[in-house]
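Email to the structure team, subject: AP-1 complex subunit gamma model.

Hi all, the expression group asked for a predicted structure before they design truncation constructs. Nothing fancy, just the C-alpha cells so they can compare against earlier work. One-line instruction: predict AP-1 complex subunit gamma, return C-alpha cells.
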Amino acid sequence: MRLNSGATASPRFFHKPLGYVSVTLRLRDDSSHFLASLRLRMPAPIRLRELIRTIRTARTQAEEREMIQKECAAIRSSFREEDNTYRCRNVAKLLYMHMLGYPAHFGQLECLKLIASQKFTDKRIGYLGAMLLLDERQDVHLLMTNCIKNDLNHSTQYVQGLALCTLGCMGSSEMCRDLAGEVEKLLKTSNSYLRKKAALCAVHVIRKVPELMEMFLPATKNLLSEKNHGVLHTSVVLLTEMCERSPDMLAHFRKNEKLVPQLVRILKNLIMSGYSPEHDVSGISDPFLQVRILRLLRILGKSDDDSSEAMNDILAQVATNTETSKNVGNAILYETVLTIMDIKSESGLRVLAINILGRFLLNNDKNIRYVALTSLLKTVQTDHNAVQRHRSTIVDCLKDLDVSIKRRAMELSFALVNGNNIRGMMKELLYFLDSCDPEFKADCASGVFLAAEKYAPSKRWHIDTIMRVLTTAGSYVRDDSVPNLIQLITNSVEMHAYTVQRLYKALLDDISQQPLVQVASWCIGEYGDLLVSGQCEEEEPIQVTEDEVLDVLEGLLVSNLSTPVTRGYALTAIMKLSTRFSSVNRIKKVVSIYGSSIDVELQQRAVEYNALFKKYDHMRPALLERMPIMEKTATNGPTEIVQTNGETEPSAVEPKHPPPVTQPTNQANDLLDLLGGNDVVPVIQTTMPTKPASAGGELLDLLGDLSLSGGSAPAPAPSVPTSQPSFLLDGLSSQPLFNDIAAAGIPPMTAYNKNGLKIDFTFERANPNPNIAVITIHASNSTEAEMTDFVFQAAVPKTFQLQLLSPSSNVVPALNQGTVTQVIRVLNPQKQQLRMRIKLTYTHKGSPVQDLAEVNNFPPQSWQ
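Reply from the structure team: attached below.
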C-alpha cells in the first residue's frame, strides 16, 4: 500500500523510466533507418534539360546567377553525400554551367569517379568532364592515367574511343610518355573507328613529346592504303605533323616512303570518283580530305624538284576541274593556289594559279576577295607580270566599301607600280588619296612618294605629283617629305621658276597644309627673284610684285594656322629675300619686330639676322646665296633631319638651330649600362646642344677635331668663335654631305635579321683619314605592318670612337617597300678588329619591341 501510495504521491518516480527511457531508446535504435528513409523521400535533382529551360527563363544576369548558385549548392550537397545514383546527372549539369562561364572546379574529382565506373554512360560524362575541367597544369589529371590505360585495353571499342579522345585532348607529356605504347598498338589495329582516333591521339603525343615520333613511323606505312575516309583524313594530319616537326622525317617520306605518289593517287581518285552521298559536300567529294592532302603536298614539294614534278599534273587537274560556284570549291582552289606558289612548279601552272586569284577578285563574297588580294600581294614579287594582267580589277577594289579590302588593294596597287604604268597608276592612287578615309591617307601618301621617287618619268611630273599629295593630304605625310621635296627642287635647276610659281599659287589658295607651306616658304626664299621676274617657261608666268610676296610671307608669320616651325621657315625666307629684293628696309623692320617674340626659336633667328644686318652686312650676300645641288646619300631623304615640335626640317637646307638633342647624354649612358658599359665608349651625336649638325665640311671634321686618346668620353666639339654668328653660319656650307667618301670595295654584311626586321651594313672609307670607316645601315621590314618609332643605337669598345648620324626616317615601311638608312662613322686608330653592340627599339602592330645584339663578324677589310 505504501508503494502504491508512494507511486500515487510521486508519479514521476515510476513514469519517467517507463516513458522517457523507452522512447529515447526507440529513437536511438531507429535513427539510422529514419534518416535513410528521409533521404529516400527527398526529391530527385532536376534533369539537365529542365535546368537549361529554367536558366533560359531568367530575365536578368542577377536572376540567372541566383539560379546557378542555388543549383550548385544542391550539387555540392549531393557530392558530399556520395550519391552514386545521380552523380552522372549532376556532373552533366555542372558541365553546362561551366560552358556558361561559371566556376565548376569542385566537380573534378567526381569526373574521376565516373571514369572509374563500369557503366558506359558514366564513363562518357566522366571523360567529357575531364576534357573540359582538367588540364595538365593541375596534378589531379595524373590520377586518371591508370584508368585511361585500362580503358585503352577495354574490350568495347567505344570505351577505347573515349580514352583516346581524352588523351588526345588534355594529355600531359607525362601521360603521353606512359600511354604512347597503347596508342601505337591501336594505330595498327584493323578497326577503322579506333585507327582514326588513334591517329589524332598520336598527333597530340608528338606535339607533347617530339622524341616519340619514331615510335609511330612503322604504323604510318599502311595508313594511306585504308579505304575509310576518316582514317585517311587523320592519317594525313599525322603525316603533316611529322613532316613539319622533323626535317629527317620529311626527307624519309620524300625518298623512302614515296609519299607523294600515294597522295597523288588518293587525290586523283577523289576528283574522278562519282557521286558518293557519304562524302559529298555541295557536289564535291570529301573537300576536307582534299584540302588536307593539298597542304601535305605543299610541305613535301617545297624546295624539292622531284616531288614538285610528281605533283604538277594533279594540281593542274584540281585547278581546272573544281567547281567554283560553291564556297567549297573556292576553298579547294585556294589551297591549290597556295601549293602551286610554294613548290617548284612550272611557270604555266603559276600563271594558272594567279588567274584563279584574279577570278576570286570578281567574287561577290568579301572574304574571298580579301583572300585573293592577300595572296596576290605575297606573289607579286616573284610573278610580277602575271599579276599585272589583273591590274584593272585590283584598282577597282580601291572603291570597295570594305576597309580591309581597300587597304589590301592599296598595298597591292603600289606593289604593281613600275616605270611603264607609273602615270596611270598614280592617277588612280591620287584619286583614291582624295576620297579615302583619313586612316588611309598617311600610308597612301607615303607610297606615292616612294613610287614617284623610284619611277618618275620626269622631274616636272615628280614635282607635280608630290605637290598634289601635299595639297590634298599635307597633314598626313611622313616626316621626311619636306626635306625630300626641297632636295628634289634644288637638284632640278631648270624647274626652279616653274616650281616657285606653282608653290606661290598653292600658298594663295590654302595655308592649312603645313608641309606644303614650309616647302613653299623655302622655295620663295631661294627663288623669289625668279618669281618676281616672271621667267617661267613651263607655263604662263604670273605678275607678282615684291611687296605681294612679302605680304604673303608676313601673313604666314601672324597666321594662327602656322606652327612654330613654319614661322621659322617664313622668317628665314624673308631674310633670304633681302639679297634678292630691293625692299631691304621693309625686311629689316620685319626681322627687328620678331627680335622680341615670345617664341624663343623665332626670337633667336631674328636677333641673329639683325646682327647680320648691322655687324656683318658685308657677309650677308655670300651667306644668303642660293643653296648648291645636294647629293642624296639615302633612299628615303636627306641624312640629316631635325625634328622640332612634331614637324620635320632639313638641317642641310635650312639655317636654323636644332632643338635639344633627341638622344641626351644620360640616355646614351643608359644604353651603355645596358650593353655592358665598362668596355664601350658613348656615341658621339651629330647634333650637339651648342652646335647644330651642318651639311658641309664641319660634319666631316667632327671626329678629326676630337681627342683621340681613347678615353671613355669624347672631347666636346670646338665652338665657333664668338665674333661670328655661329647659328647662321651652320648649315650653309657649300660642301655636299659626305663628298669625300669613296667606295673601298668592302663586302656588305647582314648584322641583324629577326622578327621581319633586317639590318644590313655597307662600308666605305673616308679619304682624308683612312682610319675612319663609314658604315651605312639599311633597315628593311618584311612584315605586313610598318615599324614606327624606329631607333638604332650602337656602342663600341674604348679603343674606338663612334659617331652616329641621324636616320633618314623613324618608320620602316612594310613588305620591303623601302628602307631606313643611317650613317655610322667609326675611328679605329689602332686597326683592331671591330666589335659593336646594337640596340633596336620600335613599335610594331601597336606593341613596343626592344632587342639587343652583338656584331662581331665584320669583314676584315672594314677594320684593317
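DSSP finds 36 helices and 15 strands in the chain. The first strand starts at residue 280 and ends at 281. Ping us if the truncation boundaries need rechecking.
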